[in-house]
Amino acid sequence: MKKEELGVPKKKSVIVLCLLCLITLGIYPYVWYLKRVPEINNLRTEEKAGKTIAGIALVFYVALLLGLVFLGVYASITNDSVEIVTELSEVPLPFVIILTAVFLIFLILLTMTFAISFRYWKILNEALVNKEEDMKLSSLFTFFFHLFYLQYEINRIIDDKENEKRTGPWICFILFVVVPVLIGITIGLLAVA
Fold it and tell me: pTM of whole model > 0.70?
């Protein structure tokens, strides 16, 4: 397929992306990154996206899910009754090894997800500069919302609304970041009091 036939990134519903993420247990975001590579690379920017990191991240995500399943299965096999562990030495070594592996996979996956998201962020910002737009994508929203924010901005660019105020990300930021933090602080303060 020729590059000209690939076109620019397509408009997609952010709500549908959220639903697909839930339905696929979080696998879809990595599929989204993989599927968008040809479109993103057709934006005539010096920075290019690659499939390698997204593909490896997808494998790590599946490994993370399997690790969590193994933890649950191991815990249910080894404990018929729920016991509270009071000392670290009481935790079975295989459980500690699996838990450590899952945590390391999670950290690696998180790092890779940020790397992919900010690569796309950089490419889209470069495309906006090439389009001679003053607007830049928000690194804050990219950090918190990854592909959902990137697709939101792609949709705005397609609709020629990139210079209008961003209301959607601010509403989501308040609902999904600020409110939970405030609730957590409140619960913490009430627990201490």
Answer: yes
Range of the domain at 53: 3-162
Q: Dihedral through CA 92, CA 96, CA 98, CA 104, nearest 10?
A: 180
Of residues 117, 97, 108, the one with CA closest to residue 30: 117
Total domain count for the chain?
Answer: 2
If phi > 0 it is left, if psi is from -120 to 50 it is alpha, else beta; for residue 144 that is: alpha
Whether residues 82 and 13 fall in one domain:
yes
Are 111 and 156 part of one and the same domain? yes
Check whether residue 99 and residue 117 sit in a common domain: yes
Among residues 70, 108, 62, 65, the alpha carbon closest in space to that of 92 is found at 70
5-20 pLDDT per residue, tens:
446 788 999 999 999 9
Each residue of 86-127: pLDDT tens digit? 677 777 788 889 899 999 999 999 999 999 999 999 999 999
